[in-house]
């Protein structure tokens, strides 16, 4: 477990919030705060919500920026539509984490998805998001969704061979999210999938923690016959990027060739602002040094 004793949760220096953690030493990201909307400690983590000058409202957990109103859609769309569009018929989807509601919002848009089950461990994140982040928490209003407050590990132990797609929308490997980056978690997800099922997990950025990316992808490869790493641009995340590890029980899957594509009109109707079929293909095209590292 990473010790982030340097979290800046209690200090707004001259109206600025600064994210700082040992996971990305020697660098920080700051934004100017107009108003602090919420700041309390839940059973699991520190929760901080504020309104910023240039990024809209922001959610911070244990000192780490989870999302801002300005750019959250790029992360939510990609972690959802990459796996959904790699699957031929993703009717039943499990979301682990995602307490802000953003991933549920995106998964519910997909025309082939009939049922969404979400398991979030921290009820307070859900409550706070509904009050202060309604642009994401609207995902909880979907009639497709059944929401459980609890431990994703325990839930999957009791739901084997049930889901077409499992999406893990976790924070970084600190606090309650640490276990979601271990090989036993990928093994557990595998057991909860139907044949040819697909998993997708947040997997960090190669600029800041290539070791985490390498290890997480290897854990996925150890459990799935097909696995890959993709990434997206999110300006308020460390180094401006976020990565995803995706695995499939179908050894013949082509991750960079979506099984399901949408017309531009369908993209507009679903309010997809980042994801499209070309972005899907490009997300798996890696710089040479990353491709060689992850080979």
Automatic annotation (TrEMBL):
Single GO MF descriptor: spermidine synthase activity
Record family assignment: Belongs to the spermidine/spermine synthase family.
Organism: Parnassius apollo (Apollo butterfly)
EC number: 2.5.1.16
PABS domain mapped to chain residues: 14-249
PROSITE patterns assigned: PABS_1, PABS_2
NCBIfam families per the UniProt record, alphabetical: MFS_SpdSyn, PRK00811.1, speE
Function, as annotated: Catalyzes the production of spermidine from putrescine and decarboxylated S-adenosylmethionine (dcSAM). Has a strong preference for putrescine as substrate, and has very low activity towards 1,3-diaminopropane. Has extremely low activity towards spermidine.
Catalytic residues as annotated in Swiss-Prot or TrEMBL: 169
A Gene Ontology term for the protein's cellular component: cytosol
The UniProt record lists the keyword Transferase: yes
Alphabetical keyword list: Polyamine biosynthesis, Transferase
GO BP, one annotated term: spermidine biosynthetic process
Protein name, entry field: Spermidine synthase
Biological or metabolic pathway of the protein: Amine and polyamine biosynthesis; spermidine biosynthesis; spermidine from putrescine: step 1/1
